Structure to design on (191 residues):
């Protein structure tokens, strides 16, 4: 004869024990899922999980950055002071430029050319030279003309001692002036 099993109702003590066991296990798993303060480390963070907007202002300082890990692009150079010797070097560079500018000389020579002869030709000047001072060489020059005049020639003088120019007056009624100028620099001494 087959035996039938009869299910018995659990006692109230057993029900309370199961509830207590469930709460105890649930609380333990809650503690494992929710980490405590200062317990998150690099193992818990995914790559790129922390962005700049999630960082508290001032949270990252030089003590938190690995030495030699930043590049020029990471640093705002305008916030850096000058290296002490760089200030002196900048002053020396300005002095050298000023000394070089003192070696540039600008010379001029003016001449007047009489009226044109009136036969359809212009009156032309002789070569007029703006000379460089002794120890200087020409690096450029030009001619400034009054109205009714034209430039015939403009070139460095032989040996680089100045700038030579020639002009023509097309006005048959009046004389006109022109100016030849030279830009000279101190010649370097080799030796």
């Amino acid at each position: 004869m087959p035996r039938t099993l009869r299910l018995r109702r659990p006692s109230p003590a057993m029900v309370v024990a199961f509830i207590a066991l469930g709460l105890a296990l649930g609380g333990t798993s809650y503690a494992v899922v929710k980490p405590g303060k200062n317990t998150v480390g690099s193992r818990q963070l995914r790559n790129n999980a922390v962005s700049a907007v999630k960082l508290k202002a001032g949270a990252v300082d030089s003590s938190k950055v690995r030495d030699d890990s930043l590049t020029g692009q990471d640093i705002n150079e305008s916030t850096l002071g000058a290296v002490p010797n760089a200030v002196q070097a900048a002053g020396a560079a300005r002095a050298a430029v000023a000394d070089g500018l003192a070696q540039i000389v600008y010379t001029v020579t003016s001449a007047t050319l009489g009226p044109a002869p009136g036969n359809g030709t212009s009156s032309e000047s002789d070569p007029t030279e703006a000379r460089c001072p002794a120890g200087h060489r020409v690096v450029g020059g030009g001619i400034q003309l009054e109205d009714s005049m034209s430039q015939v020639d403009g070139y460095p003088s032989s040996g680089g001692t100045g700038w030579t120019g020639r002009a023509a007056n097309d006005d048959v009624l009046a004389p006109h002036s022109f100016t030849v100028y030279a830009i000279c620099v101190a010649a370097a001494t080799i030796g």
User: Anything to note?
Assistant: The helical segments are 12-33, 84-102. The first strand starts at residue 104 and ends at 113. The chain has two helices and seven strands. The mean pLDDT is 80.
